[in-house]
Amino acid sequence: MRVCLINPSDPVVEDACWDEPLGLLYLGAVLEENGVETEVVDLNFHDDFKVLEDSDADFYGLYCSSPL
């Protein structure tokens, strides 16, 4: 089984590329420890969705948050 965890780009935060998606990275580490092939995609470092088109994951997880 393959899982792709996605951190969408954040147009509000200017330096979003400096914030690691720690929640997704922790989740990915737990999945890999349990034998799941995991890919974490941070869209703050990609200009298009080509990286997602090339992914052949069985499941996709999308990180979302809201400012409080």
Protein model, in words:
With 68 residues, the chain is an alpha/beta fold. It has one domain. The chain contains two helices and three strands. It has helices at 22-33, 50-53; strands spanning 2-7, 37-42, 59-62. The chain has a three-stranded parallel β-sheet, covered by helices on one side. Helix 1 (22-33) links the parallel strand 1 (2-7) and strand 2 (37-42). The radius of gyration is 12 Å and the shape is globular. The mean pLDDT is 85.
Question: Helices, strands, pairings?
Answer:
Blueprint: E1 2-7, H1 22-33, E2 37-42, H2 50-53, E3 59-62
Parallel strand pairs: 1-2, 1-3
Keyword list:
68 residues; alpha/beta; 3-stranded parallel sheet; 2 helices; 24% helix; 24% strand
Sum this structure up briefly:
This protein has helices at 22-33, 50-53; strands spanning 2-7, 37-42, 59-62. It is 24% helix and 24% strand.
Radius of gyration, taken over Cα atoms and rounded to an integer in Å: 12 Å
Secondary structure: helix percent: 10-25%
Number of domains: 1
Q: Span from first to last CA?
A: 35 Å
| Number of strand elements | 3
Q: Please identify the structural class as seen in this structure.
A: alpha/beta
Distinct helical segment count: 2
Q: Enumerate the spans where pLDDT stays under 50 for 5 or more consecutive residues.
A: none
Strand percentage, roughly?
15-25%
